[in-house]
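Annex B. Sample input.
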Amino acid sequence: MVDDHGTLLPVGEERMAISRFKATCLAVLERVRRTRQPLTVTKRGNPIARVVPIEPSLPADRATFGALAGRGRELGDIVAPAGEPQEWDSLR
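Annex B, continued. Sample output.
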């Protein structure tokens, strides 16, 4: 579907004025998350932003802690100092 300003929009996608979006932002974001339906935010009828749900890439229990587990390599002693003490300005 093409709107009045020549912008291509997906068929059936909801549109909302920015003033209404601002007043109901948290509820709108929750609705997009729950329904997985994108929303186009407009200003004076012109589309200015799309709110789309993110694609979950990790199980919920690994979303924060452990998200990068198993993706790094240990290249040396991780406990030893990075250099000799005489090389550190703070110890001079």
